[in-house]
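User: Hey, my collaborator sent me this sequence without any context and asked if I could get a structure. I don't really work with proteins. Can you help?
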Amino acid sequence: MYEIDNILWLWLILTVFIIGILFIKNKIWKIKTQNRYFTKSNLKKLSPNISEIKPIIKILTIITGLIFLIIGMINPKIGSKIQTFQRLGVDIVFAVDVSKSMLAEDISPNRINKSKQLVNKIIDRLDGDRVGLIAYAAKAIPQLPMTSDYSSAKMFLQNMDTDMLSSQGTAINEAIKLSSSYFDQDESMERLLFLFSDGEDHNNFTDEIIDTAIKSNIKIYSIGIGTEKGGPIPIKQNGIVLRYKKDLNDEVVITKLNNNFLKNIAEATGGEYISGENTTDVVDQVINTLSDTEKKELETQKFTEYDDKFQWFILIGFIFIFIDVFILESKTIWLKKLNLFNEK
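Assistant: No problem. I've predicted the 3D structure and written it out in structure-token form, which is a compact way to encode the shape of the chain:
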């Protein structure tokens, strides 16, 4: 198995073709010019020590050296060994509220971006755990199934916004139901659901949903995003606030953090409520929670470890260039005596 590191350097191979073409054109021009003024026998009398073969050997040496140098710059990597990687961790689902109330700027920069920042920071601190992503408003939609590919998780996370769902509301119950389908069937494994929301739930939340979470062995940790004082919901265009959302009475809607609602959800499943105001505190609390959680072997992965081989190609390339320096276009005296190339 192999891997190429810097494929763009492959364009330099064009220089090899250019050098080859220029050499051929120069050779043809020399032959035509010499034939115009000299016969072949007279030319050999005038330049008896000029070799016909060595210029070709010289250009082939230069081209070969350049090819090896270019290959070295491309940096081919060859798989040298296969290792077995055993990974211990827990399954985590991040459910992010994407309802319009998350546009409120009572917490900087706003609630939705604050939620994404927190999830991003938490993912940076993970080691071996699997993560899944859910977005929810009036309904919940899956964003990313369980994966240990944290780069993909971050990419999907950044694409989440309040325009994902046209219907509004905060159906936390739908997010909990959907999260239960993310986890493996192994009930002995810890299952953690982190809810990022302002708690403004406009649907009926029943004990049945809590029972579903408990029976599915899901612990809910709710992170409250926003302030109890609250703030208006801005309607922007190109980053400029045009107006604020109003209710049917034409009054500006003030959305507030409902932390009691979020606390009840967490406590009912054996989890915990965390205030989302301070980023460092939230991340530390989540990581401490994960550290105290019993980890299981999630999977065993085999991967190929690649070794850089560029140094060998660079070395061989310089050897050919070095050899070229000592190849003269005149005949070597001892080779002339041997007449290896049948030169008279």
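In plain terms: The mean pLDDT is 82. You can pass these tokens on to your collaborator as they are.
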